[in-house]
Amino acid sequence: MFTYSVPTSIVFGTGEASHLARHIQVTTPASRWLVVSDPGIVKAGLLHPLLTSLQQAGFQTELFTQVLPNPRDTDCITGAERYVEFDAEGVIGIGGGSAMDTAKTVALLSQSRGTPREFADGEVPYIEPAPIVCVPTTAGTGSEVTRSAVITEASTHRKLTLKHSWLRPKLAVLDALLTRTVPKPVTAATGVDALVHAIEGYTCTQRSPITQAFGARAMRQLVPALPLVVENGDDLEARTQMLEGSLLAGLCFGSSDVAAVHCLAEALGGLYDTPHGVANAIFLPEVLRFNAEADTPLHGEIARLMGFANDADNDAEAVQKMLTGIHHLTRSLGIPTLRSLGYVKQDDFEKLVELAVKNTSTVSNVRPINAAEYRGILERVYAEKG
Residue 366 burial by CB count (10 A; 0-12/13-18/19+): exposed, middle or buried? Predict the structure, then answer.
C-alpha cells in the first residue's frame, strides 16, 4: 500500500521567475507577502527585479534576510514575529534550501505559538501554515515541493525536521536563469545534495513505485549534467537539466524519506555548520558501500540508472563500478574529505553519532544501522586521504 499527493502548483521554464506575480495571482488571493531570502541572493542582484515586479503588480512586500546556511530556529521565530508585525498574508521563499526551509517554518510559526522543536518532537500539533511560495535559486534541495523543513536548534546544534503535508508550498516557480550566478563550489555541493535525495528516496524503506519513478529520472539526469554545469556555469541547458533533476529528486524523497547519508550530514552540519551538500557528498560513498552489502540488487539498479554500470554487469560488478564512480565524481567536483575540512575533531565523534542516531530518518535507511555502525562509517570516512 502507498499514497502520493503533491498539491504544489509547479511552473518550470526559462524566464518564468519574471512572471512570478502572475503565477501567484493564479494560486492565492494574498496580497501582502513576507519575502524570505538570504544576503547572498541580495548581493547577487537576483532579488531586486523580483521584488520590483511584485510591487508593480500591486503586492505589498516586506523583506526578511536573517537566513544562515544552516537555518536557526531562533531566526525562524524572529521571522514569524516580522510576519505578524507586517500583517502579512503569505510567505515567499527565494533562494536555496536554507531560505526555502526558513520560509516554510516562518509560515508555520506565524500561525501558532509552537516552536520548531515542539513541532519536530510532536509536542504540539501541526496547523495549516500561511500560504507558501518558493522560488529556488540553486539546483539541490527540492524544498520547493517537499513536505519538510530542516532547522538547526541553536542551543543544542540538533537538526530538527519539521514534516507535514501542509508544509508543501502552494506554488513553486523554477527558472534556470536564477541559478547561473551560483559559484562552482555551491553548484557542486547542491548538485550532489540533489543526487543523494534521489538515491536515498529511491532506496529507503519508505520508497514506493511513484517515488522510485521520480528518483530514477532524477539520477539519469543529474550524474551527466553535474560535471558540465560545474565546468561551465553559463551552460543553460546543463543548468536546466540540474534544476529539473533537483525538482524530480524532491518529488522522490519528499514523499518517501532520506536515510543514513543525511543523518550523518545533518549531524555534521548541526555541529560545525558544514554546508549540507558538502556533508552529504563526504558521506555518500561509504554509506552506499555499507547499504549495498545488505541489498546488492537494489544498489545494482541505481548503479545502472546513474550510468556507472550497464546491463551486461551483474549486480556485484555494478555496485563496485558505482562506488568507484561516485568517489571519482565527488573528488572531481572538488568536494573535500572529512579530515581536510580542518575542524572536525575525533573527540566529537560520539556527539556526531548521537545526533545521527536521533535523526528521525535513521529508521528509513535500507539497512538497519546502529550507533556502532555510524561510528565505524565516521572513522572510515575520516581516515580517507585527500
Answer: buried
CA 296 to chain CA centroid, Å, is: 26
The cell numbers describing 178, all together, are: 536564477
Instruction: Return the C-alpha cell found at 379.
Output: 572513522
Q: Quote the DSSP letter at residue 88.
A: -
In contact, 119 and 104? CB cutoff 8 Å: no
Phi, psi for residue 160 in degrees, rounded to 5? -100, 130
* Mean pLDDT within 18-44: 95
- In 3D space, the residue among 377, 337, 339 whose CA is nearest the CA of residue 357 turns out to be 377
8 Å CB contact between 305 and 219: yes
What does the radius of gyration of the chain's CA atoms come to, in whole angstroms? 20
Of 213, 282, 298, whose CA–CA distance to 253 is shortest? 213
Q: How far apart are CA 354 and CA 361, in angstroms?
A: 13
Cβ-Cβ contacts under 8 Å for 360 (sequence gap 6 or more): 161, 163
Distance of alpha carbon 149 from alpha carbon 189, whole angstroms: 19
Question: Phi and psi (nearest 5°) for 138?
Answer: -130, 160
Sign of torsion over alpha carbons 319, 320, 322, 323: positive
E-only strand ranges, 37-194: 60-64, 90-95, 132-136, 148-153, 158-163, 171-174
pLDDT of 386 reads 65
Nearest partner of 117 among 160, 87, 146, judged by Cα: 160
7 to 167, 178, 183, 350: CA distances (angstroms): 10, 24, 32, 40
Give the pLDDT confidence of 129-145 residue by residue, as tens digits. Answer: 999 999 999 999 999 99
Continuous segment of H or E residues that includes residue 185: helix 184-203
Cα dihedral 198, 201, 147, 43 sign: negative
Q: What is the CB neighbour count within 10 angstroms for residue 361?
A: 22
- State the pTM of this model: 0.95
Q: What is the pLDDT of residue 19?
A: 96
